[in-house]
Amino acid sequence: MYKSEAASWFRIYEMFRFKAFHMYGIIGSALVLGIVIVQVIKRRQLKSIEGKPIVIESKERSITRYLVGGIIFGLGWALAGACPGPIFVLLGAGFLNILWVLLGALLGTFVYGLFKNKLPH
Q1: pLDDT at 87 over 90
Q2: Which of 41, 61, 62 is nearest to 53 (CA)?
């Protein structure tokens, strides 16, 4: 992620300003690869290392759920300049200020856990 500049704040900034295709190419190729792999697992009924069948359950379809969650995730990503994966890449690269973002992500996850049962899913 570091070498491809996927963890670069500048690349993320470019993406949200629609100035470059770089990040959209990375995200798009990951999305396509994920779709292909999931379809292969489902159609060939592949098994895990332990020999158990891999079952991928269908998700409940809800526009509101994905729209609200995506907006919250996107706003956090835009404000912090990093989504969850690159947080650790940037920390490993020596950018210690990213610890604030990591603490914020952990706090947000903790707060979600507290209110999870009260939220519509």
Answers
A1: no
A2: 41
Amino acid, res. 79: L
Q: Is the pLDDT confidence value at 115 over 80?
A: yes
Q: DSSP states of 90-118 as a string?
A: HHHTT-TTHHHHHHHHHHHHHHHHHHGGG
Q: Is the dihedral of CA 48, 39, 69, 88 positive or negative?
A: positive
Q: What's phi and psi for 31, nearest 5 deg?
A: -65, -50
pTM more than 0.70: no
Q: What band does 14 get if pLDDT is binned at 50, 70 and 90?
A: confident
Nearest to 2 by CA among 11, 106, 16, 104: 11
Amino acid code (one letter) for 54? I
